[in-house]
């Protein structure tokens, strides 16, 4: 047994590269609560421009950017439509109820993706006083629990049309939006045109230690600045972190293709295992597979841990592996070695 550790639990584990560290150390910073941190301002403007949106706000986490958006779009007593596997529903501590005092209408989508027809059927009658008022649709792209699946942009446009017809806002949890962009032919500008707000994580595939951005119009972003302060999220010399973000947008987007290629390679190795029953289609950097009844996810993960390979149980028989900046071809070789021994 070697001491080697291969981290496949999440793409959040990456450490800054030397060049990213260099960019962080040479950042020119100020107090962001006063609006005077040059790097933060530069990151917000750069990202907003890339998506053709009016403004952006830099925050510590994707949970915060999602929650700020939902809070800004909903008043108490609203309802949010989303897939039942959504991060905003499963992994944000019930934040929709706490922060926006709103309820959720869950849709059973396909690999985390919902359709315009499903959205249409889930909208409450605004004239029925019994029902919460549907105000927001939240999509996730790529879908984490859908195995990094990418939406067909045509369906997103269909959903947008339903939203416009019914006066609903449309939010995108784009924690891994750059994976979706690199894995398709769609442009950031088209996303910017379609959504009322977009949340993007710098701390996932883009390889930053910390940080997410929320994009939207000037009014929404102004409102979320107040909410962020109220939550204790007003930060000071955040420019050191923003510098990592600017660096990542310039240098770490195209390379996501490598993560996608390696994820496909991981998938090939996994599908050869006799006790693997099913594997989700691999569209980006996430590999989810189902083990047969002879082994539970916990048992499999334990076995892998003993060989220095870390991955996470994603259900009783489901396991997730995520490729990223710090998972190399050499690591792939080692994984091959472990799985075939
Ligand atoms: C990681 C992630 C987030 C944000 O998570 P934080 O840990 O709060 O930054 C949001 N949505 C999805 C789909 C994610 O995978």
Molecular structure report:
There is one protein chain. By secondary structure, the chain is of the alpha/beta class. It folds into two domains: 6-13 and 255-340, Aspartate Aminotransferase, domain 1, CATH 3.90.1150; 18-251, Type I PLP-dependent aspartate aminotransferase-like (Major domain) (Aspartate Aminotransferase, domain 2). The protein contains 14 helices and 13 strands. The protein has helices at residues 18-25, 38-51, 62-73, 87-90, 95-99, 116-122, 153-165, 177-182, 188-194, 218-230, 239-251, 256-271, 297-306, 329-339, and strands at residues 6-7, 55-59, 78-83, 103-107, 133-140, 169-174, 197-201, 212-216, 276-279, 286-291, 309-310, 312-313, 318-322. Strands 2-8-7-6-5-3-4 form a seven-stranded mixed beta sheet, sandwiched between helices. A hairpin with a 4-residue loop joins β12 and β13 (318-322). α6 packs parallel to α7. The longest helix is centred in the last third of the chain and has 16 residues, at 256-271. The chain is globular and about 60 Å long. The model has no long low-confidence stretch (mean pLDDT 97). Bound molecules: pyridoxal-5'-phosphate. Pyridoxal-5'-phosphate binds next to α3.
How are the secondary structure elements laid out?
Layout: E1 6-7, H1 18-25, H2 38-51, E2 55-59, H3 62-73, E3 78-83, H4 87-90, H5 95-99, E4 103-107, H6 116-122, E5 133-140, H7 153-165, E6 169-174, H8 177-182, H9 188-194, E7 197-201, E8 212-216, H10 218-230, H11 239-251, H12 256-271, E9 276-279, E10 286-291, H13 297-306, E11 309-310, E12 312-313, E13 318-322, H14 329-339
Parallel strand pairs: 1-11, 3-4, 3-5, 5-6, 6-7
Antiparallel strand pairs: 2-8, 7-8, 9-10, 10-13, 12-13
Bound molecules: pyridoxal-5'-phosphate.
Pyridoxal-5'-phosphate (PLP) binds at residues 61-63, 66, 87, 140, 144, 173, 175, 201, 203-204, 212.
């Amino acid at each position: 047994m070697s001491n080697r550790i291969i981290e496949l639990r999440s793409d959040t584990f990456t450490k800054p590269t030397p060049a990213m560290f260099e960019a962080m150390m040479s950042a020119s910073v100020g107090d962001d609560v006063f609006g005077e941190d040059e790097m933060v301002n530069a990151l917000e403007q750069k990202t907003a421009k890339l998506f053709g949106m009016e403004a952006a706000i830099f925050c510590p986490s994707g949970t915060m950017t999602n929650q700020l958006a939902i809070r800004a779009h909903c008043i108490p007593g609203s309802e949010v439509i989303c897939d039942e596997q959504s991060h905003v529903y499963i992994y944000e501590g019930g934040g929709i109820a706490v922060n926006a005092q709103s309820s959720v209408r869950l849709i059973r989508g396909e690999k985390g993706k919902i359709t315009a027809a499903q959205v249409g059927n889930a909208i409450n009658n605004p004239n029925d006083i019994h029902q919460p008022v549907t105000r927001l649709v939240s999509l996730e792209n790529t879908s984490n629990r859908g195995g990094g699946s990418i939406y067909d942009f045509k369906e997103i446009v269909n959903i947008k049309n339903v939203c416009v017809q019914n006066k609903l806002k449309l939010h995108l949890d784009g924690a891994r939006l750059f994976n979706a962009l690199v894995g398709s032919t769609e442009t950031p500008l088209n996303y910017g045109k379609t959504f009322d707000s977009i949340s993007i994580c710098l701390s996932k595939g883009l390889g930053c230690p910390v940080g997410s951005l929320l994009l939207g119009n000037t009014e929404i972003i102004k409102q979320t600045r107040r909410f962020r302060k109220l939550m204790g999220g007003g930060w000071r010399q955040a420019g050191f972190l923003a510098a990592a973000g600017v660096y990542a947008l310039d240098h770490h987007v195209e390379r996501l293709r490598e993560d996608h290629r390696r994820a496909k390679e991981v998938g090939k190795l996994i599908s050869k295992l006799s006790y693997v029953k099913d594997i989700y289609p691999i569209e980006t950097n996430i590999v989810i597979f189902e083990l047969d009844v002879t082994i539970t996810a916990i048992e499999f993960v334990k076995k892998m841990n003993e060989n220095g390979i870390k991955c996470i149980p994603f259900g009783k028989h489901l396991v997730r592996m995520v490729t990223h900046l710090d998972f190399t071809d050499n690591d792939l070789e080692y994984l091959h070695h472990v799985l075939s021994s």
